[in-house]
Amino acid sequence: MSEKSRNLAKQLKLVFKIFSRSPTLLFSLVVLLVYIIAALVVVLGFVPPLPPYKGGWEYMYQPPSLRDFPWYILGTEYTGRPLLLTIIYGIPKTLAVAFLSALITVGVGTAIGLIAGYVGGLVDELLSLAINVALTIPTYLLALILVVILPPELKTNVLVLAGVLSITAWASLARAVRAQTIALKRREFIDVAKTIGYGSWKIMFDEVLRFMAPFIAMNLVLSCVGAIYGYTGLAFLGLMPMTPDNWGVQIYMAIRGGGALYSDKAILALWSPIITIVLLQYALINIAKAMEDIFNPALRTYLQGEEM
Amino acid sequence: MNWALRKAIFSLAAWFLAVSISILIIVLSPGDPALIMLTGFLQQGIPYDQAVRMVQAYIGFSPAEPWWSKWLRYLLGVVTGNLGVSITYRIPVAQLIANAIPWSIFFVSYSLSLTVILGVLIGIALAYYRSNTIFVRSVTTVLTVFNSIPNWILAAVFFVYIGARWQLLPYMGPYSNDVTPGLNLQFIASVLYHYTLPTMVMVLTSIPGWAFGISAMASAILKEDFITYAKARGLPSSRILWTYITRNSILPIYANIAITFTWLLVGTVWLESQFLLPGLGSLLATTSGARDYPVMIGVYVILITAIVLGALFTDLTYGFIDPRARVGET
Amino acid sequence: MSLIEAKGIVVTFAIRKGLKKLPFNAVDNVDLEIEQGMIVGLLGESGSGKTTLGKVTLDLVKPTKGIVKFMGKDIRKMYKEDYRKYRLNAQYVPQDPYASLHPFKTTKDILMDIIKYHKLVHSDKEALELVSDTMIKVGLNPPEKYLNKYPFQLSGGERQRVSIARALLLKPMYIVADEPVTMLDASLKGAIVSTLKNAIQAMRTSLLFITHEITLLQYFGSQTKVLVMYLGRVVEQAPLGELLQNPLHPYTQALISAIPVADPKARASRKLLLRGSPPSPLSKPPGCPLSDRCPFVTEKCRKEEVVLKAISSKHLVACHLY
């Protein structure tokens, strides 16, 4: 094992130790791991392909059965496909959209905030104006319009969706990063970094950014939460392509087409995607809150000391 | 007053840029509504020239003109109050929006005031009883759970169960059919009753952010020297809490109000359409489903305007409350 | 040729009071010359402009007026190569050891990074050797004990030693140490100052030692050139020994009489007190900056500006009494 991978293993162990200090956090980590494993299983092709669409009342919202175990244990959904399978198929795409969107949001927000705060002057004036304008445009509102007007082939593109869902989401992070950068600029370690001869990029992206690492990491996770909200929420409005693997579409169909209003026929089709979404959001929010601890050098060394 | 004027000019500039950028994104995207509408009319067998004129009449700009001219023409329309004509309802967009605005103002301000009051109370309680681990843990857990439920999911669940299945509260429409709209007590009572469920969803899903924010801030203030000093002087805790914490937390509360206002306004898209309420949100949701582009873009512009006005309003009122805000700003 | 030469330095700051901006000169027409291998003490209270002057010589604060020369060349008009040479040769040890070390970086990260960034050596092993040598030099011995520690795990003294090691690592020709021991316990101060002195003398590095404690300057010997600053001006300049024996400026006399003395009888005889409250750069009186507090004030002091005049070849003072 090389030093790098050993180091990585050590880091992961440490992160796990931080999580295991609180049962809620441990639970959240396990939940997230289950989702990631499920996504990998789908991507690697270990899951049977979605069976073809079967119209007709007799196939929709069938009760659970042991047929093709385990795929029919939640019964079928509105296209007559096994519900469990469609939910699992939704995981990789949702996670991909969420993660890509969070990367764009945090990447753009951090870069703009850092540059505006560190460079200052006219650059700051212009970037601040851009931030202030973007702040007045709610992401989901513009995303809604774009999702409606974009041609269908673009709407299903993961990268386009990620871009749409982060269209102005970067602004609030950029504002916070800018304010923190301006405060950090006055710190003595930045003066020292200058005399050491570090260039602006090194100071911005190593010294200043490292200081904000917990905040940035927290925002990365919270941006995932936001993107999942938008991705499923816009689908629930019926504005996304009606793909069976979108949890928002599944809830929409369970209420509008499954008679969830009057009977328990579609109860599994209603609650399964809801629990899938809420569980994921709950886990992500708890993990976001833990970022402070993960990056806290005092806690890290304390836990490392326990090992010895 | 100079300061207020400067704020207003700045807001106007931000509004202009936000609307312009949105319009440009819309007309430059591969889904330029004018082109889509044109294609639709052409497919219905309408001759090209007539189709172009129809698009122009509905949305305010023509599919044949360059992007900058579309942008200028639409902006001019916004300024003069001409937002085009709805394709589905065949009436001016401005009229549709004017009918919707009072409902949204009522829904959002009602939810906002409840959210702020309850959020601040819970937040301060969390900070004040922070030594009571059981209280803090259980409240935090409940808040985190509500934080992780998207508002449209809570709306759907409440709609299905509290509304349709158990019939505990009204879940469709803004008031019952047997009252006459107007300034009478039955009507107002009916509206409040019908908005109970939607408002519950709004408030429950926006409280966690408030409670966590206020509690973090209040905890920080409780650790400050002047609190220790106040305790040392023997001031009762309740007095310390109200005079110091509430006074010191007015700025963050104000800053948060504008953000929550925006968030609730966007939330009406889901909530008003779920509970079949009139308003800007449901107008946007239904016309989006029907691809009624003139209404969609019109409502969008109005919502942006409302957000800018909301931010300006909180800025100005805060400036009047706390004179420190008027100076020190560049 | 001097290593560092600052001429006619003026730094104007503005503080905002309400909607008005009040400008004031934090440093007001100051000259400073530092020869190679020389130690210069810069003495003054907070608000005297001593830190700002130090930062001007490091190009961390841009002077409103005046030029700074490094080895005879104006640092603001240097070619890139020359500026880089200046940059790497002018290092800084700031006052607060808690704010000057990155909290998320270990000692090893902080020090190794510098070597790697400037590609000073070819291998990690060499870099580690260089880091260890420097750490031993500043009294962080054995280095292994400190390498993997985060700043919060170090004591104040250890942090300041890391801060000094960081400044020494590039083997600079010039170091500014801004109150490096102010935040430390009295028992540690001497040890850290001696460490700094030994390290820079071994490398023939120049040092600008900024402090408000005249006693700390005694570690550098009586020949150390000392500049006394008051409200942005240099009021007196002399070798330390001369300054202690024969202080000319009333402000210097007051500073020296404030040195704690063990003998209570001696104390009374040496006492010289300034009137009024500690100075603020915002309420600088016209004429001599000390005119509102000086016991020997005359009409001339309140009206006429004072300039630094030479009393002897090494002793300069800015006071109308001489």
UniProtKB/TrEMBL annotation, chain B:
Pfam families: BPD_transp_1. CDD domains: TM_PBP2. Gene3D superfamilies: MetI-like (1.10.3720.10). Residues 101-313 form the ABC transmembrane type-1 domain. One of its GO terms (cellular component) is plasma membrane. InterPro entries: MetI-like (IPR000515), MetI-like_sf (IPR035906). The chain crosses the membrane at residues 12-31, 103-129, 141-162, 210-230, 251-271, 297-321. Its main location: membrane. GO terms for biological process: transmembrane transport. Coiled coil: none annotated. Keywords: Membrane, Transmembrane, Transmembrane helix, Transport. It is found in: Cell membrane; Membrane. It is a multi-pass membrane protein. Belongs to the binding-protein-dependent transport system permease family. This is ABC transporter permease. It comes from Ignisphaera aggregans.
